[in-house]
Amino acid sequence: MASVAAWLPFARAAAIGWVPIANNPLPAPPIPKERVRRDDEKLYINVSGRRFETWRNTLEKYPDTLLGSNEKDFFYDEDNKEYFFDRDPDLFRHVLNFYRTGKLHYPKHECLTSYDEELAFFGITPDVIGDCCYEDYRDRKRENAERLLEDRISENGDDKLAALGSIRERMWRAFENPHTGTSALVFYYVTGFFIAVSVMANVIETVPCGRRVASNRHLSCGERYKIVFFCLDTACVMIFTAEYLLRLFAAPDRCKFMRSVMSVIDVVAILPYYIGLGITDNDDVSGAFVTLRVFRVFRIFKFSRHSQGLRILGYTLKSCASELGFLVFSLAMAIIIFATVMFYAEKNMDSTTFTSIPAAFWYTIVTMTTLG
């Protein structure tokens, strides 16, 4: 009633013609507690003595997990009116933040095994780890698996097998984490330098460097300095081939490595060179494989091995594959619809360039993506 009484002078002033100081409406009358309808309920969660508070709706957003399902009732303490879990309270903070924000983060300072055990206990899969933390989680997971493999090999008692496994394990660790040693860091920068040289050479060899005297047409730098660019390409391909073979030797699972995206990029980047060596000077034969030189541009994707940001971008695109697929499908439908409209609108014109619906695709794509 005090809040209503505070507005009474303003109401009287408005009644006799005074200008009110505030334009806000009068506050709503108080509602008795018994008439309040509770749509949500605050829950208390005790994790090894540390108490957390959250709303029931926050947990029920993920019904496939322990806290989001009715299974949490097995941990309910009737005396204290709270849920009790004998788990790690420091790690549970990250679990509860997942329910609140929908994003799961990986704490770098925590033990990986303990973190996985907490996720498994609460029914949360590591696949939902955010893109900002997934790279660190994957690296720690791989290092842990390699360390366990090394311990298992050492326990077998086979010195030769242990030595071979130790060499492969150190090589693979050096490839995947170049900052482990000086030699790995040198190899990391050398391969990155040759990737940049190869990409730049692929661009520069198409630049005009004069004209032919006989045909009076432009002569590209790749044609004028053919030997120089061939030697440069050979040096780059030798480095890339050696890197691929060393990675294949050191890979813990060679079949899985050969099927990986980066392995396919490595093969596609060097394959045109070796095919070109086996092609004769016959124009009919070389013309069939001349387009393979286009695949050399895939060497630029090798930079993703040297950039954590590019790898995070790849994981982001992978996690949004369904949304991107729907976007591409929507664009394709719009292109087909507008191209059909343009074709039938210009069909009877003599000088039309829209001779078919596919011929109108280019105009539609350019209009939608630029002029829009």
TrEMBL record:
Chain segments annotated as coiled-coil in the UniProt record: none
Topology of this chain in the membrane: Multi-pass membrane protein
GO cellular component: a single term: voltage-gated potassium channel complex
GO terms of biological process kind: action potential; protein homooligomerization
Source organism superkingdom: Eukaryota
Record key words, sorted: Ion channel, Ion transport, Membrane, Potassium, Potassium channel, Potassium transport, Transmembrane, Transmembrane helix, Transport, Voltage-gated channel
Protein name: BTB domain-containing protein
Species: Strigamia maritima
